[in-house]
Design brief:
InterPro entries: AosR (IPR018561). It contains 8 helices and 3 strands; from the N terminus they run ββααααβαααα. It is mostly helical.
Length: about 240
């Protein structure tokens, strides 16, 4: 994995196929916890983009037809038989989705109570939980999509930076719950564990990831470092303006 650097219009980093697969899996898993399919969101985005392209083509053709109509009117006069209302256009509607959200410690951290009063907290959750979960899923889809390619390049456009960073933060929240990170000491222990399992010294001594907690610790440290590299790049670009 290589840190982000500034490019015109966005930011570029690199991640190999294994790293991208693992990161996509994390985004998909968090989406599932929220009750929303990340791949469904991406598919809808692509269908919407295709529909926009098709609509633009229709509009272009309609403009050409209007030009032809004007030309015909000039040639045959107002008494001609050209009929400008002979075509009809229609656009279909999108289907809606409802998401059922399971509650556990990780979800409680992702979707925290908005009040210390239990009754008010329940009321606010009922009103905002679905929309908040949908927003987080959209961010996760943006993150997933940036890693869903056939090469090592990871491209994040300027306008998608906030969503990308928010998605990484939510993934880290879930990982921190799974790793029981509750304070600075437990956080430092996870970084120490990840450092022990990675790098040239670890490879030379044959250290390997042996269980799920080892893997989660490494992924947590990698994501934290990657997120920080993008934040630094964003800060540098902002100071250049």
């Amino acid at each position: 994995m290589i840190a982000f650097h500034i490019e015109r219009g966005g930011y570029v980093a690199r991640a190999d196929s294994t790293e991208r697969r693992l990161m996509r899996g994390l985004a998909s898993d968090v989406g599932t916890m929220l009750g929303i399919s990340i791949t469904d969101i991406i598919e809808k985005r692509r269908e919407s983009a295709e529909a926009d392209d098709l609509l633009a083509l229709y509009e272009s053709e309609l403009t050409e037809l209007e030009g032809l109509e004007a030309q015909l009117r000039e040639e045959i006069g107002e008494g001609g038989s050209a009929n400008p209302d002979s075509s009809e256009w229609s656009i279909g509607s999108e289907r809606d989705r409802e998401a059922a959200i399971p509650m556990d410690e990780a979800i409680a951290r992702l979707l925290p109570d908005m009040s210390e009063d239990p009754e008010l907290a329940r009321s606010l959750r009922a009103k905002t939980q679905d929309s908040l979960a949908a927003e987080k899923a959209e961010n996760l889809a943006t993150f997933f999509d940036s890693l869903d390619n056939d090469n090592d390049v990871v491209w994040v456009e300027n306008e998608r930076t906030t969503a990308w960073l928010a998605a990484v933060n939510d993934i880290r929240i879930v990982l921190s719950s799974r790793l029981d990170i509750v304070d600075e000491a437990s956080s430092e222990a996870v970084y120490t564990r990840a450092s022990y399992l990675t790098g040239e010294e670890a490879a030379a001594e044959g250290r390997e990831i042996e269980d799920e907690d080892d893997l989660l610790a490494v992924l947590y440290a990698m994501l934290t470092w990657w997120q920080e590299s993008l934040l630094i790049a964003v800060g540098i670009k902002a100071r250049r303006r």
